[in-house]
Amino acid sequence: MAEQKRKRGTLTKAEVIAAAYAIIDADGVDACSMRALGSKLGVTAMAVYGYVPSREMLLNEVMARFLERVDTRAVRGEQWGETLLRTMHSLRKACIEHPHFAELMNNPCISDGLELYMMRLRAIYLAQGMPEEIAVQLLSIADAFFAGFCLRSSQRVEKGEEPSSLDSNAHGAGDGTRFATESRVPGMLTGHRAPTTRIVRPNERWRRTVKAGYSERSFENGLFVIIEGIRAGAAPDPCAWRTPVQ
Predict the structure, then answer these.
(1) What is the pTM of this model?
(2) What is the average pLDDT score of the chain?
(3) Residue 188 in 3-state DSSP?
(4) Distance (Å, whole) CA 155 – CA 54
(5) How far is residue 215's CA from residue 73's CA, in Å, rounded to a whole number?
């Protein structure tokens, strides 16, 4: 049901962003249409465009607000690797608590919404004495790692069924089905299934393996790999970068 219509000129951009944030947090990105947002605010969809020129810009504004939840403080005396662990664990915690924003982070339209968050992190690393080239590299690698980890860990292994018959020599309508169900086995480019290929049902052991692979411990191990990679790439620099105590 639409909210009560409000008087012209009583709406602010901050209210628009807050309402969009609430819709996404509760129901997901797809639920946040301009029409739904206008209904929640008591205005028309066209009126919303007076505050944000496009839905893409709106989503980036919401993303920037969400990332304010992440711990990006500069901690005195903190070593750069500890900074990476602290900030990335904080980001993961925020996404676990608000999973729809994890989905939004992986939306192709999100770009400007990440900028302030990235700049806050960049400022910390530069203040620690890290060369800018390495700081940019670290942020890029960490962002790519988190995006992939976040996306894959949110997916579940679905319960599959063995088809009663699949004729590998048949063509036509069945090819699309084989392509969809066997994209990770031989024939993924043509949709034609090799005679020896067999679709395996996911089992409980596999489910546990996948779950363990995307655990908090695995996440931290991935961050350690990044840290060691930066150390190796920066050698012979001792990488003794840390936030000034004073």
Answers:
(1) 0.76
(2) 82
(3) coil
(4) 29
(5) 25
Residue 80 to residue 88: CA distance in whole angstroms: 12
Query: Per the structure block, which two tokens stand in for 193?
Result: 């299934």
Q: What is the per-residue pLDDT for 184?
A: 36
Q: Which amino acid is at 42?
A: G
SS3 track for 121-151 = HHHHHHHCCCCHHHHHHHHHHHHHHHHHHHH
Mean pLDDT of 181-208: 54
Tell me the average pLDDT across 87-109: 94
Say what the pLDDT of residue 208 is: 72
What residues form DSSP beta bridges with 79?
Answer: 242
Please give the structure tokens belonging to residue 64. 């920037």
CB 160 within 8 A of CB 202: yes
Q: Is 146 in contact with 67 (CB distance < 8 Å)?
A: no
State which amino acid sits at residue 71. D
User: Is 156:211 a contact under the CB 8 Å cutoff?
Assistant: no
> Exposed/middle/buried for 24, CB within 10 Å: 0-12, 13-18, 19+?
buried
